[in-house]
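I am writing to request your help with a piece of structural work I have in hand. A protein sequence and the structure tokens that stand for its backbone fold form the material at issue. Please examine both parts with care and let me know of anything in them that strikes you as inconsistent. The record follows directly beneath this note.
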Amino acid sequence: MTEKFGGIPTPQKSPENPKELENKHEKERKKENVRNEMIALAKEFSESGKSFPFPGISRETYSKMEATDKEFPGYSTPVDELLEKFKKEGMKVVPGKRPMGGTVYVLPLGSNDIESDGIFPECLEVNDAMDEKLKELISKRQEFVSLC
């Protein structure tokens, strides 16, 4: 439905029907629950000081990080250097600066530099030997991103 305004048709937002509104609210509740579960896991890992062996990252993630290195040199630690740090040191999970926004990062064990060294948990390669709670965090992060 459109309405003429100064001779120009303008789209009118149709009111949401009750079912659409209910679905929207349900999605927001689910997103909030997933975010809270994800943040709780990240805080648990961070406060315990737990570290993990680095399982590697997907080829897709590597390609994206490599492209970012080329497009914005010096913006973050170069991908090959970062991967070497992860392999050498292992990794840890930390909540972001604004965890209520759903940000959770994986850092090399010896780093606290989220901006330069942080990657998102869903960038990790999941394997059978991986800690079950870490797998759960990755799954929650993927679900959270899909709800955004």
Observations:
- The helical segments are 18-48, 59-71, 79-89, 114-117, 132-147.
- The first strand starts at residue 2 and ends at 5.
